[in-house]
Amino acid sequence: MIRVIIEHKAKDTEKMIEVIREVRNEAMKQRGYIMGETLVNTEDSTNVLVISSWESLDDWKAWDKSETRIKMKGRINELLKEPYTVRMFHYYLIKNNKVWSVF
After folding, report:
1. What does CATH list as the number for 2-101?
2. How far is Cα 67 from Cα 64, in angstroms, rounded to an integer?
3. Rounded CA gap, 62 and 14, in Å?
4. How far apart are the first and last CA of the chain?
5. In this structure, how many other beta carbons lie within 10 angstroms of the beta carbon of residue 41?
6. Which residue ranges make up each domain of the chain?
7. What does the buried/exposed string (b/e) look like for 78-91 if buried means 16 or more CB atoms within 10 Å of the residue's CB?
8. Per residue in 13-24, pLDDT tens?
9. What tens digit of pLDDT does each residue of 35-84 get?
10. What is the three-state SS of 53-99?
């Protein structure tokens, strides 16, 4: 499992969140999508963080390169003060005081 973290610097946070909801509704239909959440920085409401969980890196990459996602990126980009950043992390589990890889 991987987690994808996308950090946005929004011109209009409310509009950004509306578009993020639409993107998530489409992502939920994709193979490998597990869950997502949207966080707004308590000290800077223009800083919006999206965290999504995917079964595999390949599932995320397929979604990221899909026609639907590419169209929605355009809508997101219109609402940004600066380009967003994307970071991907493999998920690790701590069990019995040992770290176990899940990938």
Report:
1. 3.30.70.100
2. 9
3. 28
4. 6
5. 13
6. 2-101
7. ebbeeebeeeeeee
8. 999 999 999 999
9. 999 999 999 999 999 999 999 999 999 999 999 999 999 999 999 999 99
10. EECCHHHHHHHHCCHHHHHHHHHHHHCEEEEEEEEEEECEEEECCEE
Q: What is the DSSP letter of 42?
A: S
Which tokens belong to 13? 């946070």
Q: Please compute Rg for the chain using Cα positions.
A: 15
What is the rounded distance in angstroms from the CA atom of residue 88 to the CA atom of residue 60? 9
Cβ distance 54 to 1 under 8 Å?
yes
Give 82-86's long-range contacts (Cβ < 8 A, gap of 24+): 82/9, 84/6, 84/7, 84/8, 84/9, 85/6, 85/7, 86/4, 86/5, 86/6
Q: Which two tokens stand for residue 27?
A: 């992502």
